[in-house]
TrEMBL record:
The active site is at residue 37. Homodimer. It comes from the Bacteria. Catalyzes the condensation of pantoate with beta-alanine in an ATP-dependent reaction via a pantoyl-adenylate intermediate. The reaction proceeds by a bi uni uni bi ping pong mechanism. The gene is panC. One of its GO terms (cellular component) is cytosol. This is Pantothenate synthetase. Belongs to the pantothenate synthetase family. It is found in: Cytoplasm. Its EC number is 6.3.2.1. GO terms for biological process: pantothenate biosynthetic process. It is an enzyme of class 6 (ligase). The keyword S-adenosyl-L-methionine does not apply.
Length: 281
C-alpha cells in the first residue's frame, strides 16, 4: 500500500494509472475509520483495479463553532485498516497543500443544500462540494462510493457530478449500524456511556415512523408530533431537526407519498448525530 501526501504526486500517479487502462475506485473519508467506512471500501474494491482512499479532515466544511480541532484522528490505526481492506493508495494531504492561502474559487450547490443540515450549518456543503471536486480532480476516479448515512451529502454530490459533468459513477453504500442500531459515526466516540444509550433514540424514532407509515399513517404533522413526543422523553437529547422530504429534491412534503426521506439531526449532550430512513407508503 502506498501513502501519498502531495496533491501533485497523487494527480501524476492517477494520470499514469488512467493511461495504463486501470479503473480507479475512490472512497473519500475524514479518517478515524469505522466499519461503515470499511464497508464502502469493500464495495469499491469489487468494482475497480486500483482502490484509493483519502484521509483528510476538511477545514472548509466546519463552521467557526464546530469541532474541527477536536475531530478524532488516528492515522496509524487508519493506515492498518486500509491495508486490511486492500486499499492500494491512501491519499493523506495537509490542509495547506489542498488550499492556497488566497483560495477564492468555491463549488456551491444552490437547491439541495439549503435544507436539513445545510439550514443550520451555513457554508458546510460549499466546503463539501469544493473538497470533493478537488479530490475528484486529483484522484481521477472512475467511481466513488459515498454512504447513505450522510443522505443529503450523497444527493448533493450526485447533483454536482450531474451538473458539472464529472466522469465519475457515484455508488451508494448502505448505512452500517452497531448491533443495537446506532448508526456508525466517528463522532460516537464523544458519547459517554449514558449518552450512548440515549443516542439510540434516533434509530428508535425512525423505526417508529416506519411502523406508523406501515399502519397507514402518512400525515407528516401527525408523524412529526409522534417523533417529538418520543424525543421529549429522552434525557440529554436536543432536536436540531426532524424532516420529511422528497427523496430526490429534498423539498418538504405534507404527506408520505412515493419515496420520502425521514432525516434527523439530534444533539446528545454536545455531540450532533444524524440518521435517516427512506419510507414508502
Amino acid at each position: 500500500m502506498q501513502i501519498i501526501e502531495s496533491p501533485e504526486e497523487m494527480q501524476r500517479l492517477a494520470l499514469f494509472l488512467k493511461r495504463s487502462g486501470k479503473t480507479i475506485g475512490f472512497v473519500p473519508t475524514m479518517g478515524f475509520l469505522h466499519a461503515g467506512h470499511l464497508s464502502l471500501m469493500r464495495l469499491a474494491r469489487e468494482k475497480c483495479d486500483v482502490l484509493v482512499a483519502s484521509i483528510f479532515v476538511n477545514p472548509t466544511q466546519f463552521g467557526p463553532n464546530e469541532d474541527l480541532d477536536a475531530y478524532p484522528r488516528d492515522f496509524e490505526r487508519d493506515e492498518l485498516l486500509c491495508e486490511e481492506e486492500g486499499v492500494d493508495i491512501v491519499f493523506y494531504p495537509e490542509p495547506g497543500n489542498m488550499y492556497a492561502a488566497d483560495a477564492s474559487v468555491w463549488v456551491d450547490e444552490e437547491s439541495l443544500s439549503g435544507v436539513l443540515c445545510g439550514a443550520s450549518r451555513t457554508g458546510h456543503f460549499r466546503g463539501v462540494c469544493t473538497v470533493v471536486a478537488k479530490l475528484f480532480n486529483l484522484v481521477l476516479p472512475d467511481l466513488a462510493v459515498f454512504g447513505e448515512k450522510d443522505a443529503q451529502q450523497l444527493r448533493i454530490i450526485e447533483r454536482m457530478v450531474r451538473d458539472l459533468n464529472f466522469p465519475v459513477e457515484i455508488v451508494r453504500g448502505a448505512i452500517v449500524r452497531e448491533p443495537d442500531g446506532l448508526a456508525m459515526s466517528s463522532r460516537n466516540k464523544y458519547l459517554t456511556e449514558l449518552q450512548r444509550r440515549n443516542a439510540l433514540c434516533l434509530r428508535q424514532a425512525l423505526d417508529h415512523v416506519v411502523d406508523l407509515v406501515g399502519q397507514g399513517v402518512v400525515d407528516v404533522a401527525v408523524l412529526g408530533k409522534s417523533v417529538a413526543n418520543l424525543m421529549a422523553s429522552v434525557p440529554d437529547a436536543v432536536v436540531d431537526y426532524v424532516e420529511f422530504v422528497d427523496d430526490e429534491t429534498l423539498q418538504p412534503v405534507g404527506r408520505v407519498k412515493g419515496k420520502t426521506l425521514v432525516a434527523l439531526a439530534v444533539k446528545i449532550g454536545t455531540t450532533r448525530l444524524i440518521d435517516n430512513a427512506v419510507v414508502v407508503p
